[in-house]
Amino acid sequence: MATTLSLTALENLPAPVEAPGYDRSNLSPGILHIGVGNFHRAHMAYYLDRLFALGEGQDWALVGAGVRPGDQVMRDRLEGQDWLTTLIELDPKGLNARVIGSMIDFTPIDPAAVIAAMSNPEIRIVSLTITEGGYYVDAKTDGFDATHPDMAHDASHPDAPRSVFGMILAALRNRRLAGLAPFTVLSCDNLPENGHVCARTVIGLAGLSDADLAQWVDRNVAFPNSMVDCITPATSDRERALVRDRFGVRDDAVVVCEPFRQWVLEDNFPQGRPPLEQVGAQFVADVGKYELMKLRILNGGHAAIAYPSALLGHHFVHEAMADPQIAAWLRAVESHEIIPTLAPINGVSFASYLNKIVERFANPEIGDTIARLCLDGSNRQPKFILPTLAERLHNDATIDGLAQEVAFWCRYCEGTDETGNAIAPNDDNHRMLRDLALESRRDPLAFLNNPAVFGNLADNPRFREKFAARLRFVQEHGTYAAIADYLQLTKTTAAT
Known about the structure:
This protein is of the alpha/beta class. It contains 21 helices and 14 strands. It has a five-stranded parallel sheet with strand order 7-4-3-8-9, with helices on both faces. It has a four-stranded mixed sheet with strand order 2-6-5-12, sandwiched between helices. Strand 5 and strand 6 form a beta hairpin. Helix 10 (288-311) packs across helix 15. The longest helix is centred in the middle third of the chain and has 24 residues, at 288-311. The radius of gyration is 23 Å and the shape is globular.
């Protein structure tokens, strides 16, 4: 009989499960986190849990928050188990489970409640995981998208916002009027210079209705950059059965993740911060190089294997990595086109980092799916692939592999794999992407007629030529042949 996770159950957890190593009644809030998904609970919540177990930083406990109707489901699940989460690390050498207790509350899913919680002087950091596409970035200019309906609404209704950033501004306004110090805003999303992007959005939104507030935010609010990393699959019946049958715990909000984590932060927290360096986080003056390394090698690597693997019918990521052609394709495009765009980092070997990425992708315990890697391509491609491609073009370097990656995405967007099986839609723009991809059967450049994704890149003659050629090749000869052709090209190039 499985033990239902709750505060009262902590003293009687099944033997293999580690309980929080501290008294939760001693915790007090310091961080409000918006977007309490799996990644947050496997990453930030884990680091804080480990810190509290050392008896350190216990005035930095988490308060959860959400702004979307779907966040209510997560809140309900966590409330029923006293905000506790079972975290299972999927180590091939042996699974282990730990109950994470660093969250002590969760605001109602209501803008007024979220604003009130952020206005509380105990909250000194507001952190976010709201997905890469949630920052209102104009793809054409790479700046703040002031024309988005959410931004227009919040500029017109600053006291009744509907976006995260409108709520942050409302809380900052409250604190300013009350004479309270502003909280630090910490983005934990996979964006280059995520702190700077977050600041640009908050200040840009303020400027639409209150220039004085915008200036005050610019001068007084810290937005440190950060780099986060931990592969965290979605929770399904598989994971719920795992925690129940393997560890004897009933947890509707169980999280599974790989046994690897990395967190690199710019040390810019005027109102203080938890001493996370005691549990492995790195505080540095400039996160940018680490951030770019992760975004391009890991996230770019995920994108590189996602679409060819889907076209070939691979379901799990580790199955795809067991395919010699997929593994060779990943190493080739990383080594020849992605890694050369990175500036050196003192003490870091990019070759070793790539080897670790390959090892992580191949971990059979994770159960990460190719479908998850393919998710939301219209937001992820402009973050993880197209900037690298643009830099290669600017430097007059080869782009065959990156153009092939975009071609694989186009072929995937047609909606069927190579054996004719339907691919389930997993992009908010899937209808437009499908129509453009199918039109590319007639005109291979039709797929680039998407300024929200490609911006000015679609006008580059060399990219247009390479993309058209690589797309035609995969359409006519298939995925394996396209990979083999690229691998041969890299061998020929290396030999000359």
